[in-house]
Design goal:
The protein is α/β, with parallel strands linked by helices. The chain has 2 domains: about 45 residues, no CATH class; about 160 residues, Rossmann fold (3-Layer(aba) Sandwich), CATH 3.40.50.360. It is built from 5 helices and 9 strands. The protein has a 5-stranded parallel beta sheet, sandwiched between helices. Strand 7, helix 4 and strand 8 form a beta-alpha-beta unit. Helix 1 crosses helix 4.
Length: about 230
């Protein structure tokens, strides 16, 4: 039966009819050596959510960059422009770097995913990430959209040094994403309003992107070789 959810007072009541409720076992496995894992959902829950998104939204997996003529390597940058925390003060410099790296590869395009208006709706967001080959972003909720990425996609995180900040790595492991960590060289970032990417951090971002592009270049070469052998 539907039941009422009251937010603050009776004027803000909502009624929901639940057909299927998924209960997730969140107990940490005895063999898991990691600490501070209280907010990490189990792999089966992440995979189930991923599969349900593809089924219900009819998502298409990312195309191979070798598929002519429209398929390109899609690099999605998650921008924290309106967020109250962890905005990047030299975001323009970072975006210029991304564009320059992509310009060196004629088969690459940069797509901006921002929390500033106008925003994509949920289905559009999931389609954007489902078609992504590479996702880059600072530690934060925006990286959770990588749940729509297909296996083999590359997730590059501007990562916090704190022990709890392992959510994106955990998500990547569950969905067979390739995870690259660009460590930020200072602590206490979780509650800081903004930070500046140092020249060293920008160099590490560039290296991670070149490595990611090389992954797909190598896959393309292998596919061409297999076709030639056939």
């Amino acid at each position: 039966m539907p039941y009422a959810i009251v937010a603050g007072d009776d004027k803000n009541a909502a009624r929901l009819r639940v057909r299927v409720a998924h209960a997730v076992e969140w107990t940490k496995a005895s063999h898991d050596p990691r600490s501070d894992t209280f907010h990490l959902p189990p792999k089966h829950a992440i995979v189930t959510l991923h599969d349900e998104l593809y089924r219900r939204l009819r998502l298409e997996p990312r195309p191979s960059p070798t598929t002519p003529p429209t398929a390109r390597i899609r690099l999605v940058y998650i921008q924290r422009a309106a967020a109250s925390k962890r905005r990047i003060s030299n975001d323009n410099e970072l975006q210029l770097l991304l564009q320059n790296v992509c310009n060196e590869n004629s088969n690459c395009e940069v797509r901006l995913f921002s929390d500033a208006a106008p925003r994509l709706d949920f289905a559009e967001t999931m389609r954007l990430f489902a078609g992504a080959h590479i996702v880059l972003g600072a530690h934060g909720a925006g990286l959770a959209n990588a749940v729509a990425c297909g296996a083999g996609a590359v997730l590059v995180e501007l990562a916090l040094p704190e022990e709890h900040a392992q959510y994106a790595a955990h998500l990547s492991a569950a969905l067979a994403l390739r995870y690259a960590r660009v460590p930020l060289p200072f602590g206490a970032l979780h509650s800081r309003a903004e930070f500046t990417l140092t020249p060293s951090a920008l160099v590490h971002v560039e290296m991670a992107l070149h490595a990611a592009l090389a992954v797909f270049a190598n896959e393309n070469a292998d596919q061409r070789q297999n076709k030639d052998e056939l």
